[in-house]
Design goal:
Elements: H1 8-17, H2 23-30, H3 35-47
Length: 49
């Protein structure tokens, strides 16, 4: 889902299509992030102007 750069409404529609009431269910089920990746992503936020 994240690699497709979908707008939030399309992400919500995708989540609902999977039968999930809450987008958090979709995210936690299909977009796991390791602690290493989490650190890299957070550091990248500070590097972006």
């Amino acid at each position: 889902m994240s690699d497709r750069n979908l707008p939030l409404d399309a992400q919500k529609a995708w989540s609902q299509n999977l039968g999930h009431e809450n987008m958090a269910t979709t995210i936690s089920s299909y977009l796991p992030v390791s602690e290493e990746e989490q650190g890299r992503l957070i550091k990248g936020l500070y590097a972006t102007p």
